[in-house]
Amino acid sequence: MERLQKILAQAGVASRRKCEELILAGKVEVNGETVKELGTKADPAQDIITVNGKPIKSEQKVYLMMNKPKGVITSASDPEGRKIVSDYLKGVKERVYPVGRLDYDTEGLLLLTNDGEFANLLTHPRHHVPKTYVATVKGVPHGTELDKLRRGIQLEDGMTAPAEVEYKDVDPDGKESVISITIYEGRNRQVRRMFEAISHPVIRLKRIAFGDLLLQNLKRGLMRPLTKDEVNRLIQLAKSEKKRQGRRR
Ligand code: URA
């Protein structure tokens, strides 16, 4: 038996919060009875659960990682007709969606799933799952400027949490440098804004790791399913980061 909002989210109806709203609005029935209480439990294998009169599909849970190319948008649709991530999902019949987002111009590791709980766990701001990026930036930031990123830097939406920052490569004529940065938050355009704040704007950005999951040599535009072990490790990591951060406060 599972909570109804969890079953609905896992069936890909909507996010867990939206599913709670559907329940409260009286749109959900279990075995023909309208259920409006959020704590209600049901058995997805036995009970007939409908939303707006339509039975939910009990989809197999799918976990994928993709190497998102630059110039692809992570939303479900784009009014400007730009390429979207689902254009790359040939052969995946489940309704998967991105776990968090990558900017249009950012490439690299993007997780996709139809498991709302998993997506929520990994993107929840309290869970502090590390994400590592390789940023090619204009010029060569001084070590003291990178220290600012390491300590946390003031952005318009507040201080950033401490980040891990390392030089990877420096152009001999000083035009650009390659820096790896691991952040524990997921604010909008965060890495770009952090480098802008030290006056070294990002030229190219690629996410190479999500938790301990590495992009490795997955070709641009391709995807692969995660192994059970990879899924479980990400879940454990999100749970343990939450505990660790809780103890620090
Ligand atoms: N930070 C950014 O600036 N862009 C992304 O796409 C991800 C993190």
UniProtKB/TrEMBL annotation:
Keywords attached to this entry: Isomerase, RNA-binding
EC numbers on record: 5.4.99.-
Domain RNA-binding S4 residues, every copy: 2-61
One Pfam family linked to the record: S4
SMART domains: S4 (SM00363)
Entry's family note: Belongs to the pseudouridine synthase RsuA family.
Protein name stated in the entry: Pseudouridine synthase
Species in which this protein is naturally found: Paenibacillus zeirhizosphaerae
